[in-house]
Amino acid sequence: MLKKSILTNYKIARKEKDEITKEVLWIIISNIKNKEIELRPQNKEITNDDIIKIIQKEIKQIDEEIELFKKSNELKIPVLEIQKDYLNSFLPKKLSKDKLEEIIKTFIKENNIDVSWSWKWKLFKFLKENYNNLYDWQLVNEIINKL
């Protein structure tokens, strides 16, 4: 499970006194614990998908920080870039644009779909069920708009 990998990497970073990695993993671990507390009343366990969303959210926050620091010529940008790259290593590899386009076209062909507004919801459901966290929504929309 992804949580175990993150905890192991955090312990390694602590032992090696890798402050950059330790800092970013501590944030992720804290968010994982918060999510577990949130799920506890529902008798649910945290899933890898939940953890991936936590990591993606942190990457987005790092991107926002980088943009802010670029405006002020802050020296912390390289540290943030390292943290972002490190977090990306925990995420599943995204589908390429070509592969995603192939999947969408195959879906349309196999389901004999007339390309109209209503078919998009079927496609979104299919992608979520079969390729969750492996694609970029903006890329999906770009491909759909070309069809």
Tell me about this structure.
By secondary structure, this protein is mainly alpha-helical. It has 2 domains: 87 residues, Hypothetical Protein Yqey, Chain: A, domain1 (Orthogonal Bundle); 50 residues, no CATH class. Helices cover 75% and strands 0% of the residues. The longest helix has 24 residues. The model has no long low-confidence stretch (mean pLDDT 88).
Percentage of residues in DSSP E strands: under 5%
Radius of gyration: 19 Å
What overall form do the CA principal axes indicate?
A: globular
Q: Determine the number of helices (DSSP H or I, runs of at least 4 residues).
A: 7
- List SSEs in N-to-C order: HHHHHHH
Question: Class of the largest domain in CATH?
Answer: Mainly Alpha
- How would you name the CATH homologous superfamily of the largest domain? Uncharacterised protein YqeY/AIM41, N-terminal domain
| Number of strand elements | 0
The main pleated sheet reads as: none
Class from helix and strand fractions: mainly alpha
- What is the total number of structural domains? 2
Helix content: over 70%
CATH architecture of the largest domain: Orthogonal Bundle
| Sequence stretches where pLDDT stays below 50 over 5 or more residues | none
Q: Would you tell me which CATH topology of the largest domain applies?
A: Hypothetical Protein Yqey, Chain: A, domain1
Query: Span between N and C termini?
Result: 38 Å
